[in-house]
Every structure is written in structure tokens, then in C-alpha cells.
Amino acid sequence: MEKLYLRAFPLLVTILLFPHLLQSQGCLSRQPPRPMVFTPHDRSDADPQQVHISLAGKDHIRVSWVTDTKDSKSIVEYGETPGKYNALATGEHTSYKYFFYSSGEIHHVKIGPLKPSTTYFYRCGDSGPEFSFRTPPSGFPIEFAVAGDLGQTEWTASTLAHVDSEDYDVFLLPGDLSYADFQQPLWDSFGRLVEPYATRRPWMVTEGNHEIEIFPIIHHHGFTSYNARWLMPYEESGSTSNLYYSFDVAGTHVIMLGSYADFDAKSSQYKWLKADLAQVDRKKTPWMVVLLHAPWYNTNTAHQGEGDSMRKSMEELLYTARVDVVFSGHVHAYERFTRVYNNEENQCGPLYVTIGDGGNREGLALTFKDPASPLSLFREASFGHGRLRMVNETHAHWSWQRNNDSNAVVADQVWFESLSASKACWNVDDQGLPSSHKEEL
């Protein structure tokens, strides 16, 4: 009982002192969400909890977890046979304080080199349960599951169950993870909620507005919890911030941008993005995918214009590099656009997809602008997730699956070609414009 009280006390204090932090922003029309799911801690203080894995450079995986005790070892034992570990790696640990809350010990251990398409069994900290994961393939096909604005409601549980019902290789999340919003025990609950999924496939995430957690005067440093818990391969990709980074996997270069880090032409993020795009070899990674939180194109009445400044700053970089598809979250609905550049249809621009419908506690953004923009090809306010399958060097299939109570229903899908294979989009005239925009999607 005492342990439960200590864990609940910070949450209760936050609710009592700062009730306005629990309120949704704005006056959007939203479908009522399902109840919150708080996942309890049911292991010993020394055992690892909130375990998740992420890609960490070529042939390496980072294993992250939390322990309540401060003297637990930051080690991972692993091998290809259950219960038999022929390799061991040592990492680092950290912790943080936020108001009345003190985190557990947060461990990060990088393991490898690992073989592609191989199942590894592993144990964290020399105690606790055994987990397993499968590494991504070295080449095509590869499949990504994509869902933003997850939160931890019954809708979230439904989305994760639907994602898990079909095989995939890597999970991509364009911001807004736990919806803790200053209530730090909800970060712990979220970690425990996603552990059954995030221990078996790499989870690659970027930050959303709900990760900022700045409180004027008292706590003026943003992303404290996010950066401590969800360490991504920013150093491996030459970035100086965990808020933006990139990675290669199976012929695909994935760029995770930070909507809430500086992005003007003088910023570190802009300079990093420009350098990162310049080093991409489309013969090795013919596909290029970008994720960010606040959408650059949006016909929903929610969050109108919030991504415009970033788009005006960075869109030309993505267009010139021939990025294939851009995913965003933030708007709690699904929407797919045609290929776009500078607010016009352009067959050499990226596809834009908003997928902020993972299950958040705020509900859905139900209202779209009417009439619809000709750039918007499909839009619907329902919870769900997406599947991006790179079949080979030139062709990919995207599908969006709407959540039903018992199964996921494919409501939208499209085949498209990689811009790396488009001769028209790489042959430009003296004005820097593609010589032809006649290719079909």
C-alpha cells in the first residue's frame, strides 16, 4: 500500500494543483474517447520494466528499460537461443526529477552487430523476464507500421492489438506518445502499456507537443521526460539533438524531424537536415521517408496553419531531395494527399499523410473544411493505423486500417512509385523545374 501511495502521490498532487493541465486545448468538436488505461507495475523493484528497443546505427539495436532500484546493472545478455546468451553489452543509465516526481533508473544499452531477419533472445540487467525481437531485413520487402498520437486509452489498446495482428518490421510514431502532460507516472504507465509490442520490434519515434512539458518559471527545460526515456539514434546520424535524427533500414532512409525544435535556415536542425539529405545515396536507399508532428498540409479545421512556418522553411529541401512520403500526426484524424509542392499538385513532390489517430485521450477531430481541397484524396475522422510496405526498389503500397471493435478494416490504400526511379523528376530545366509532371502516382 505504501508503494502504491508513493507512486500515485505525484499524480494526485498534479491533478489537485494544476487541473487546467488536464483540459484539451481549444474548442474542437471531438468524438468522445474511450477511458484511460493505466498499466500497473507488477514486477519487483529490481526487475526491468517499460522495456523497448530502437534501431541504433548499422546492425545495432538499443535496448532501453527502467528499474526502481538505483543499483541495477546496465547490461544486456543476448543470443539466438532461448535462455542461452553468448553475448553481453554494457551501457549507461540516467534519471530525472520533475516537480515532486523522481524517475526510476533509466537504462540504455546498445547491442550488436546483429544479423538481419534474425530472432534474438535477451535479458536486461541480469534479472527479470526474457524477451525476444526480430531484426529488420537487409533488403526488400520491408513493412512499417505507422501510428501517431497514441496516448493510453482503450482505443490505444485497440490500435496496438490491430498493429500486432499482422507482421511488420519497424514501428514509426510521428509524435505524442504518452499524453502524460506533466503527470510523470503516466510516462511509466505508457512504457508498461507498449512493452509487449516495443520489446519485439524497433520503435522509432519523434516528439510532439505533448512531450514538451515546459512549466513557466518552475520547469523551463522542455522534453526532459521524453529525452531521458526515448533515446533515439541522433548521435549515430550526426545530429546534436534527440529531437531530430535519421536512420537507414532495408533500402529506406527515414528522417525524423522536430516540429518543436528550431527549424529556420540558421537553425541547427535545418543545417543538419541539409547535410543529411546531401549524403543520401538513392542507389543504396531508393526510398526516402520523413516523419514530423505538425502537418504541413491539412484540411481538417483542427490545428490549421500550425505547420506552415516549418513547411515554408524546409519544404524546398525535401522537394529537391525527392522525398517520397511525409507522415505527420497532431490532427486526430486520417488524411492522405496527392503529391504536393508549395500548395500545388506536383508529381515530383512527396505524398503527405496525416495519421494522428492512434487512440489519444482527447478524441477525434471530426470537422473537415468543405468543400475538400483537390489535393486531399481521402480523409476520415476515425482511429486506426497505417502500413507502409516497400515491395522493391521502385514500388510501395500504403494502406490505412480503421479500428473496429474486433478487427482492423482497410479503408484507404494506394500503390506508388519511388521518385528515385522517376527520370522526369531528376531531369530539370534551367529554372530547376522537372521536365515532366505527367507520371502517374
TrEMBL record:
UniProt domain Purple acid phosphatase N-terminal: residue ranges: 48-135
Alphabetical keyword list: Glycoprotein, Hydrolase, Signal, Zinc
GO molecular function: acid phosphatase activity; metal ion binding
Domain (Calcineurin-like phosphoesterase) ranges: 144-334
Any Pfam family the entry gives: Metallophos
Similarity comment text for this entry: Belongs to the metallophosphoesterase superfamily. Purple acid phosphatase family.
Protein name listed in UniProt: Purple acid phosphatase
The species this protein was found in: Carpinus fangiana
